[in-house]
Specification:
heterodimer, A: alpha+beta, four-stranded mixed beta sheet, B: alpha/beta, Alpha-Beta Plaits, Fe-only Hydrogenase (Larger Subunit), Chain L, domain 3, about 35% helix
Chain lengths: ~180, ~575
Amino acid sequence: MAVKSLEIKDKEVREKFKEIERFIGSEHKLNDNQGMLMGVLHKTQEVFGYLPAEAMDLVSDRLGIPTAHIYGMATFYNYFTLKPRAKYQVFMCKGTACYVAGGGRVLEKLQETLKIGLGEVTPDKMFGLNITRCLGCCGLSPVMQVNEDIYVRMGPEKVNAILDKYRKKETKKRKVSK
Amino acid sequence: MYKMIEAVINGIKVEVKEGTTILEAAKKVQIKIPTLCKHQDLPPSAACGLCIVKIKGSNKMFRACCTPLEEKMEIVTNDPDIVAVRRTVLELILSNHPNDCLTCARNNNCELQKLAADFGISEEHFKKFLRQIPKDSSTGVIELQPEKCILCGRCIYVCQQDQDVWALSFLERGMGTRISPAGDINMGESPCVKCGQCSAHCPTGAIVEKDDTERVWAALRDSEKHCVVQIAPAVRVAIGEAFGVTGANFTNKLYALFRRMGFKAVFDTNFAADVCIMEEASEFVERFAHKKGPLPLITSCCPAWVDFMEKFHPDMIEHFSSTKSPHEILGTLTKTYYTEKHNIDPKKIFGVSIMPCTAKKYEITRSGEMFASGLQDIDVVITTRELARMIKQSGIDFLNLPDEECDHMLGDYTGAGVIFGATGGVMEAALRTAYHFVTGKEAEKVEFKTTRGLKGVKESEINIAGTKVRIAVAHGLSHVEEVINKIREAKKKGEELPYHFVEVMACPGGCVGGGGQPYMVCDELRKERTAAIYQDDDDRVLRVSHKNPYVKRLYADYIGNPLGDKAHKLFHTEYKSRPQYTR
């Protein structure tokens, strides 16, 4: 956990660290260190897919914010995860409005289709399933979030098509890289 | 000018300064509102909800600890509704608190237990939900039992804000909330500096000092062992609190107590504080007058401060006084000088230090120099709180003991030795002797009062023989950064140094406010303890360390000169940079 561990050998990880550092550099103009922490953690999770301990050390070091404080924040919000998770994280809103509008049935459908429970990840690491409490657009309930994409007025019948979209995206990527 | 406001609490008129909370205002008119998370020493965290009151015109209940009184407010602090809510709050807290009071370190001294008794909680209506979090004893100094934590946040406040260590924080939320170092590592792997302020502020048994009293009892029972004891300056003025007496000095009763407990020799850390000053003042004069070594000189008697510096400010190592802390000096002398003069096998000596401090438990094995006698110089450290328990177990009527003297050889002290216990004391004691070392004369007035008081950083200029000495005294680790940054800045720019001499004590108030002292410390109590210390100084005929006849004899018969070869071997130590996190 010491700052020492920042001397990372893996090239790919080093690049990711640099990306976070660049982000911090650009944010500096807009925010003080404490104020930008939340944004930096979001960026870190975007880059790594989760918050690795070494990355939180980097953030602590560059922003001069104690590691303990960053951990407190990272474990407080359930958006953040300290463990690697699926490529596409599905969040079904279980806030009051979404639930009343039938969000529960969408959730059931998701569990049935993906064959996983809450907080779990599919064996191919493709999808993870979680709930969230209110995404702030209750007028469009029920709402579902897949990574950064928001789907509104959800119904169980829309689940398969949406998941397929991401599956196709992945197969395409794989073909290109081959 | 501040505005005064008038309000009514339980039908009683009260007039207070604007901004006063309902809790404080109620206290003024002899109304006691029960509290749990609120500590007098700390700002309100409004975590527990026990101090709720009714305000006329509102259908909500308000937390008295954090609601400021307003003009014409009418407040009710006690009625059947309020009591019922308070009972429910307590029962909810108890529903995730283990019921092992009888075997808890805080038994009979626990704020939660007391409230449960006051409210006559005799039945548990809620289903028990205990957090299964293992105990953490990895520091060897304090023990964390998050299971017993009521999430008041006091430890976190002192660790982060007062001490600027940030070893502890809240992780997770809701039912999963717990106190822990970052990433659920052990305390021993965290930046924790062992100051123990968390344990001194905890309302329950969630953070307690590691209890070493059994080891002391075992040694006392062992006829092969020659047990010697020493007490730190701050212990004598706080131990009375465990027996209901505040602000009194129990030095001579403690000497009597130790003999009755079975200690073969009763020494005093204050004597070693005088020795410490001989070395530290010499170091200062070397650096200040003879330009040998970098200034400012920074004091190093406080092991939590030493640990903090090694972890957070290792670039300051060259400024640190290499003199060991007084109790370590005494430990070394016990197993060398004392045993040689009395023809005792040093291996038979069992050295016990009674300290206001938890970090002293860590210090005794901190580095190789803590074994300067060839053995571990101090065998066990117990805190003031542990001593209080030992007295209660011993069956000795402590308050009514006759006064006794210590064993003079390593016991008699001057006024300079005793003021080590309060913030600014080491500085003042060192200046008294440094003045003599520089000028060859005695200062007309031995008091340097600018070092005293509870202000976080105390800066002043002292005139020694026409030369101005700039000093700074900081206490509470959060005040250190300010001082260190000034030094760093000046060094970087090549400017004149802001200080020549700096004293730092980790705990607010210095050792009198130490992490091993009796509970419920606040500034009022710190002031009382400090006053008793300065009274002791005032009452002494000898008030400068270099005049202590037993210190003179020690140097003449055994050590030679301060900073000499033997002094270096026995009284000095080294520092090294340490990682904040070891995992």
